[in-house]
């Protein structure tokens, strides 16, 4: 039985060490009582370096108040859970964005604390940020195209209106010029009429 238990525990440790999530337990005083060994590969810490420390020791200062508030609410209700994202400190001084799920299992004798599992989502967040920037660029380009299209429509309408006014002006001028010209031509034809006497021609002229 003892050998089976040892083998089971070894298998469990091996599985925990190779999963992508870090598993942790926070006791009722808000101190870290357990960190899975894979934290070293993912964030550089040895578990012993964090055990016994505040649960918020690696939380970025900008996120700390928000995360503490969420966890204090979590401690108030048994079996409640919360999902949060925050910047988590690595041993080398850099930060990685993590997504954390926490469950209040203080009444569970095997856990006797808040059970956490969290994973590095830095690359996913960067991809989301890049996508957001691309969408903003596309939106800005669309706005420019819409504005340019509106300007072209206005310019086209102005050009059409200018053509209409020009055509109307030319038609009017043609009419104004044609009317007296018709009179002059008619009058000239009368003067050239061979049957008119000199007195009649002089009367037309006067």
Brief overview:
The protein is of the alpha+beta class and 206 residues long.
Describe the model:
- The protein is α+β, with helices and mostly antiparallel strands.
- The chain is 57% helix and 18% strand.
- The protein is built from six helices and five strands.
- Strands 2-1-5-4-3 form a five-stranded antiparallel β-sheet, sandwiched between helices.
- It is rod-shaped and about 150 Å long.
- The mean pLDDT is 82.
Secondary structure: elements and pairs:
Elements: H1 2-17, E1 22-26, E2 32-35, H2 39-43, H3 47-50, H4 61-75, E3 81-89, E4 95-105, E5 113-120, H5 122-191, H6 198-205
Antiparallel strand pairs: 1-2, 1-5, 3-4, 4-5
What value does the Rg take, in angstroms? Answer: 45 Å
Number of helices: 6
User: Percentage of helical residues?
Assistant: 55-70%
Order of helices and strands: HEEHHHEEEHH
- Order of adjacent strands in the largest pleated sheet: 2-1-5-4-3
The average pLDDT value, as a whole number, equals: 82
**Proportion of residues in extended strands:** 15-25%
The low-confidence runs, each spanning 5 or more residues with pLDDT under 50, are none
**Number of DSSP strand runs:** 5
Q: Which structural class fits the helix and strand makeup?
A: alpha+beta
Shape: rod-shaped
Span between termini: 144 Å
Largest sheet, in brief, is: 5 strands, antiparallel
């Amino acid at each position: 039985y003892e050998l089976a238990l040892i083998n089971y525990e070894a298998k469990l440790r091996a599985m925990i060490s190779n999963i992508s999530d870090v598993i942790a337990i926070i006791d009722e005083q808000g101190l870290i009582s357990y960190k899975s060994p894979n934290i070293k590969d993912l964030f550089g810490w040895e578990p012993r370096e964090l055990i016994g420390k505040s649960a918020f020791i690696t939380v970025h200062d900008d996120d700390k108040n928000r995360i503490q508030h969420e966890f204090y609410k979590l401690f108030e209700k048994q079996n409640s859970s919360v999902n949060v994202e925050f910047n988590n400190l690595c041993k080398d001084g850099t930060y990685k964005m993590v997504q954390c799920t926490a469950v209040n299992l203080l009444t569970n004798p095997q856990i006797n604390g808040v059970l956490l599992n969290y994973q590095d989502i830095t690359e996913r967040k960067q991809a989301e940020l890049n996508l957001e920037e691309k969408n903003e660029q596309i939106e800005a380009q669309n706005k420019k195209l819409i504005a340019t299209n509106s300007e072209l429509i206005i310019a086209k309408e102005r050009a059409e209106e200018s053509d209409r006014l020009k055509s109307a002006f030319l038609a009017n001028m043609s009419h104004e010029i044609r009317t007296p010209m018709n009179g002059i031509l008619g009058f000239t034809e009368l003067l050239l009429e061979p049957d008119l006497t000199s007195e009649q021609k002089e009367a037309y002229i006067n």
